[in-house]
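User: Can you recover a sequence for this backbone? Please restate the input before giving your answer.

Assistant: Of course. Working from this structure:
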């Protein structure tokens, strides 16, 4: 399936709460996967927030994969398009939080 998650391999610790690294991140290699894990493990202390952000990130990466977007190709316009789609489907506070996550995660993973 295009948005399947891949569990970290031998060199990758699992995210707290047994969350998995999305396949577009894994496709970019060890450094990207490690930065993804670090973002969730070190930046987000609350386990409920961490789980919610991980679900949101997985949904976003699944959306990107459906459109053939690899991690390095993702631009702010793609995040904006995704957020617009969410705005049509969900409440404003939910969209605002996910837009914030997208910006923070992009900075963390792509460095």
């Amino acid at each position: 399936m295009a948005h399947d998650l891949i569990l970290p391999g031998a060199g990758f610790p699992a995210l707290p709460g047994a969350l998995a690294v999305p396949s577009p991140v894994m496709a970019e290699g060890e450094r990207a996967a490690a930065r993804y894990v670090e973002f969730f493990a070190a930046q987000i202390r609350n386990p409920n927030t961490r789980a919610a952000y991980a679900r949101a990130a997985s949904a976003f990466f699944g959306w990107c994969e459906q459109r053939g977007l690899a991690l390095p190709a993702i631009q702010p316009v793609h995040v904006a398009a995704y957020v617009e789609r969410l705005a049509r489907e969900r409440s404003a506070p939910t969209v605002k939080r996910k837009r914030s996550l997208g910006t923070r995660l992009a900075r963390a993973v792509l460095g």
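That completes the design. Residues 5-110 form one domain.
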